[in-house]
Amino acid sequence: MVRYILSGVFILSIFTFKPLFAQKGKMGLYKAPFGVQAYTYRNYFPKDFVATLDTIAKLGITELEGGGGRIDPADYRRLCNERGISIPSTGAGYDDLVADPRKVAETAKIYGAEFVMCAWIPHERGQFTLADAQKAVKDFNAAGKVLSENGLTLCYHAHGYEFQPYGDGTLLDYIIQNTDPKYVSFEMDVFWIHFGGGDCVKLLKKYKDRWKLMHLKDMKPGIPKDLTGGTDVEFNVPLGTGEVPIKKIIKQANKIGIKHFFIEDESSRVLIQVPESIAYLKSL
What we know:
Elements: H1 2-15, E1 35-37, H2 49-58, E2 63-65, H3 73-82, E3 86-91, H4 94-99, H5 101-111, E4 115-118, H6 130-149, E5 153-157, E6 165-166, E7 169-170, H7 171-178, E8 184-189, H8 190-195, H9 200-207, E9 211-216, E10 218-219, E11 236-237, H10 246-256, E12 260-263, H11 270-283
Parallel strand pairs: 1-2, 1-12, 2-3, 3-4, 4-5, 5-8, 8-9, 9-12
Antiparallel strand pairs: 6-7, 10-11
Helix pairs in contact: 5-6, 6-7, 9-10
């Protein structure tokens, strides 16, 4: 009887062209694989690297952004692969990109990454200037060319301080408009864009395919905001419970073709909040 019922369901699934056991959430608004930024588990990797990867895998996460720290890159990739986790994107410091972009590319390729993201431009805190932006444009174009020649895409991860006014827009507009699209793309961290006063949905519409990656994170409602690119980590809350319009952002990200989304939670409550954020994405 059990075989008969299962057989009937299987036949039905064929004729409806739907997978029998579709992953929850795949037919809804959020269609991408579940990913996480390794920084989310920065307090756990040093204690037990393998156990932390196991925790991540058990959540159904199949994409990880970021390197393995002190772990040998080849070993890191092997440990991830054994758990069904790929590393489509990794990070690199600004100074490393400027000093030796080929070395950055070599490490990223060992991971099997497609993207290399840089999350900070050196500057005096709270005083990001046109000169800082101009230097970054030059450096990103140069490093991005080397990465491109090695089959990789450089993505700058804006951090909110770039919303200093400039011309008819901001210094973020300046950076996007003056970097070469062949060599430089961007990762949107929706928390920091919102924190700096930017409109995530409007920026996705304005610059479309310049955006390749996204950090999904939410913000405690009503917190004070500024142009420093930094705030209390405990202001990170589970997706869907804060003031960042996550649903609208994902809808627009889908329209422009972003394929890699990484949950990032900088709080001390990640073991509770990351599962809640995944449940929210599945509910959309």
